[in-house]
Amino acid sequence: MTTSRGLAPNYIAGRWTTRGACGELPVTDPATGEALGSLPLSGAAEVARAVAAASAAFPEWRRTPVPERARVFFRLKALLDEHHDELAVRLSREHGKNVAETRGEIQRGIENVEHAAGMPTLMMGDTVEDIARGIDCKTVRQPLGVFAVVTPYNFPVMIPLWFWPCAVAAGNTVVLKPSEQDPLTHQRVVELAAQAGLPPGVLNVVHGRAEAVNALIDHPDVRGVSFVGSSRVAKIVYRRAGATGKRVQALGGAKNHMIALPDADPEMVAESVVGSVFGSAGQRCLAGSVIVGVGDAYEPVRERVLDGAASLKVGRGLDDGVDMGPVISGAHRDRVASFIDEGESDGARLLMDGRGLRVAGYPRGHWIGPTVFENVTPEMPLGREEVFGPVAGLARAPSLEAALEMLARSRYGNAASIFTASGRAAREFRYRAGISMIGVNVGVAAPMAFFPFGGTRHSFYGDLKAQGRDAVSFYTDQRVVISRW
Ligand code: NAD
Question: Is residue 436 within 6 Å of ligand 1 at its C-beta?
């Protein structure tokens, strides 16, 4: 929903409203610089209204039988399928990635809606008879109340759908604070959810920045917080929410390594590396970043990655044949470029430079082309910090052991991939990598909706991850009932 002048209002108690907002933020097309709309900058008063609406909706929603709650998600799934193309085009315009990528994102979001529709079986408890003579014990999963969901810009449709459908299907109510950089397509998803029969107040949306997030975290009626974003903010959210005794799952940034052993097929490695590093212009938490060639694997992989990177067409995601779109903002483009500057001055060798790229017809786009370095080491910011742009850092290692040591030094633990024909090497990698999402001959190890999504070390603060059974556990409390009759 956007107003005639392009304003995307908050959604509170089933009404679109901008009441109480203390300003507006613009949303722009990152390829053209064109204004797409704006959103209200909400503060504590708007958040309080949204939490009050969610609290008021909770008792009746909780009592709504779980098959009825699930049916809302069957209907939402059908509506999202029906509107898949329309959503993909909108999303490409506001985020920048190409339409094949936005279609993929929406599909992953739909799969989370499908998962939530399975709630009648997902939230079943356990029973054991005769834990003592004539005494039985069972567990019942109950919803907790209002959850806050705070999400980043890079998957603005899918990531909210990791959380709120599962929370809501389990009987909770939600206040969502989407990314302020590209929240418009998800507004449309909220409209479709209302059309699917979600009652007023069950899902609420408040737009804004840190002030809105802090007000949500501090609100005494919010029972838990699901957050995804940079590690810096994830840590702030984890600490702040934890200090109030709330449940919190805070997914942060990444620095993902891809390791090629000499027995891997170099064509397959290079194709996977190019897809992983440059897909979505590198703005994925599962994107490959450091590419480690072990021994003789290095040269053939290096040549093919350079060829693959050179063949990518950069342009507006909505245009035909475009492989890679712009990054989200001018500020982010400058940040990625400063990592490239720093990589050069730190002694990494720049093989392909994406700085200063121009795309014909789009002088105001936030362009940065595929960039490839070699001789990247774990001491350099380029080898250590999250760049979140289309930059590959190639490195050599004499052995799998040495590659595992590089991984062990990373402060992040989101994803890592190994490419090999050896089951033994793959097992060794899986066993010792200490990373949560592991690809074996797979460049983007993205768990589907029924598996947990999230990292370790500074990539994740919390215990229960997004998606799968973890999400059901996060959004419910197990009550244990011991009875004697
Ligand atoms: P971000 O941390 O800047 O913002 C994320 C959310 O936090 C936004 O809604 C924003 O408004 C809010 N926020 C920003 N500063 C805040 C503050 N000081 N206090 C409270 N809230 C604040 O992240 P981003 O740039 O939107 O997204 C990119 C980051 O997200 C990358 O680091 C990426 O790796 C990460 N990410 C992680 C995963 C994962 O599964 N681990 C998935 C997607 C993205």
Answer: no
Nearest CA to ligand 1 atom 28: 229
**Within a 13 Å sphere around the CA of 467, how many CA atoms are in the beta-carbon half?**
22
The burial class, CB within 10 Å (0-12 / 13-18 / 19+), for 343 is buried
Residue 485, number of CB atoms within 10 A of its CB: 5
Give the Å distance between the CA of 100 and the centre of ligand 1.
24
- Whether the Cβ atoms of residue 294 and residue 398 lie closer than 8 Å to each other: yes
CATH architecture under which domain 256-440 falls: 3-Layer(aba) Sandwich (3.40)
Q: Measured from the CB, is residue 183 less than 6 Å from ligand 1?
A: no
Judge whether 10-252+459-484 and 256-440 match in fold. no
At 19 the pLDDT is 83
Query: Do residues 301 and 336 lie in contact, with contact meaning Cβ atoms separated by under 8 Å?
Result: no
Q: How many helices (H) and strands (E) does the chain have?
A: 16, 22
The CB of 236 under 6 Å from ligand 1? The reply is yes
The helix or strand, by DSSP H or E, that contains position 213, with its residue range, turns out to be: helix 210-218
Nearest residue CA, atom 23 of ligand 1? 229
pLDDT of residue 189: 98
Q: Cβ(61) to ligand 1 under 6 A?
A: no
Q: From the CB of 182, is ligand 1 less than 6 Å away?
A: no
For residue 294, what pLDDT band results from cuts at 50, 70 and 90? very high
Residue 152 has pLDDT above 90, yes or no: yes
Domain ranges of the chain: 10-252+459-484, 256-440
Does the model's pTM come out above 0.90? yes
Indicate which atom in ligand 1 lies nearest the CA of residue 234.
2
Is CATH 3.40.605.10 what the domain over 10-252+459-484 is classified as, yes or no?
Answer: yes
- pLDDT band at residue 6 under the 50/70/90 scheme: confident
HEC readout, 170-208: CCCEEEEECCCCCCHHHHHHHHHHHHCCCCCCCEEECCC
Best residue for ligand 1 mutational test, from 214, 237, 285, 448 (most atoms within 8 Å of Cβ):
285
Q: Is the CB of 152 under 6 A from ligand 1?
A: yes
How would residue 5 be classed by pLDDT, with cut points 50, 70 and 90?
confident
Average pLDDT over residues 375-381: 97
Catalytic residues: 285
Residue among 27, 47, 94, 179 to mutate when testing ligand 1 (max atoms within 8 A of CB): 179
Per-residue confidence (pLDDT) for residue 22, from 0 to 100: 83
For 44-84, what is each residue's pLDDT tens digit? Answer: 999 999 999 999 999 999 999 999 999 999 999 999 999 99
